[in-house]
Write a structure and sequence with these properties.
Length: about 290
C-alpha cells in the first residue's frame, strides 16, 4: 500500500539530553515526546541540514525546542516557569492546554545559506503534541497522517525513554515537502484500509513503545503483520550539541561593550548553552 511509516525509539540518547538539565518530570516527559516527534518528522525528509521543532506558548512551559542535524545529531531544551510547574499536582495530565497554553508550533528545515529555508507554523490546538502535528499536516500539507508518541521511565529513578510512530497516506501527484525525494512503490489505499491501519496504530501501548526489551521489528510485526512491513536501514541517533568556546566568544564579541560590563560578574563573563548546559568562562578584559 502507499502508506509510509517512521518508527523512532530513543533510549540513552534522550536520557542523556534530559539528564543534563534535571527538569521536573512533567517538563522532561513533554520534551522527550518533542524529541521523538522531531526525529519522526525529520526521518520523512531527504535533506542535509537541520530540522527544528519549536513550540511557543503562554502556559507554564513557554518553550520546547528539539532539533536534529543530519544524519543523526539530536539536541533539545525547555523553558518554563519553575514555580508554576512545581505547584502542579503530581498526577497532572501533560495536556497541551494545561502545560503550553495558547501559542504555536513551528517546523523548520534549514539546509544552509545557499538554500531557501522552509517553515510551517500552526496554532497549538489539541490535547497532545501528536494532535498538534496532526493539525499541521491537515492544514499545511494535506497529507493524511497518524502519529502516536510516548515517553516515560520504567521506575521512578530509572532512565528516560521515548518513542514515536508516524504513518502517512501518500497522496497522488506531488506528495509535498515531507514526501518529496522519497522513492516508494505506489499502491492504492482505500478509505477502509487507511482507517484499519490507523486503528492498529492507535492500539500501540506506551509500555510497548518505550520497552527496551521489545525490538522495533517485533513491535511493527505486532501491529501490522496482516499487511506486512518493509523495513529500511535505520539511522542511529546520538546527543549532539553544536556549542563551543569559539561560538560563545563570537556571541560576546557581537554585544556592545556597555552590555558586557552589565553582564560581567567579578570581571568574568559566563556563557551557558541552553541545549547541553555547558558553561564557557571569559575574562572581561578580553573584550575591552
Amino acid at each position: 500500500m502507499g502508506v509510509r511509516g517512521r518508527l523512532v525509539r530513543l533510549g540513552p540518547t534522550v536520557d542523556e539530553i534530559l539528564d543534563r538539565h534535571g527538569y521536573p518530570d512533567l517538563v522532561s516527559g513533554l520534551l522527550a515526546e518533542a524529541l521523538a516527534l522531531s526525529c519522526a518528522l525529520a526521518g520523512a525528509l531527504k535533506f542535509d541540514g537541520v530540522f527544528t521543532l519549536q513550540t511557543k506558548g503562554d502556559g507554564p512551559i513557554s518553550t520546547l525546542l528539539a532539533d536534529l542535524k543530519s544524519p543523526g545529531s539530536l539536541r533539545g531544551y525547555a523553558q518554563f516557569d519553575t514555580e508554576a510547574v512545581r505547584n502542579m499536582d503530581a498526577g497532572t495530565i501533560a495536556s497541551i492546554p494545561r502545560l503550553l497554553g495558547a501559542g504555536y508550533i513551528a517546523f523548520t528545515v534549514d539546509q544552509g545559506p545557499d538554500t531557501e529555508r522552509y517553515q510551517g507554523i500552526v496554532a497549538l490546538e489539541g490535547f497532545s503534541l501528536a494532535d498538534c502535528a496532526h493539525n499541521y499536516f491537515r492544514e499545511s500539507e494535506q497529507i493524511e497522517t497518524a502519529i502516536v508518541l510516548a515517553s516515560g521511565k520504567e521506575t521512578d529513578d530509572g532512565p528516560w525513554r521515548s518513542g514515536a510512530i508516524m504513518l502517512q497516506r501518500l497522496p497522488e501527484g506531488d506528495p509535498s515537502l515531507l514526501a518529496r525525494g522519497v522513492e516508494f512503490e505506489r499502491g492504492e489505499v482505500s478509505e477502509d484500509d487507511w482507517r484499519r491501519v490507523v486503528t492498529l496504530l492507535a492500539s500501540t501501548q506506551t509500555s510497548e513503545l518505550i520497552d527496551p526489551c521489545l525490538a522495533g521489528d517485533d513491535l511493527l510485526y505486532r501491529l501490522f503483520h496482516e499487511d506486512g512491513v518493509r523495513i529500511f536501514e535505520p539511522t542511529q541517533l546520538r546527543p549532539g550539541c553544536r556549542c563551543s568556546m569559539q561560538r560563545a566568544e563570537r556571541i560576546l564579541q557581537q554585544l556592545p561593550k556597555t552590555e558586557l560590563y552589565d553582564l560581567a560578574l567579578d570581571d568574568q563573563l559566563i556563557v551557558t548553552c541552553e541545549f547541553c548546559n555547558a558553561s564557557y568562562t571569559f575574562l572581561l578584559e578580553q573584550f575591552s
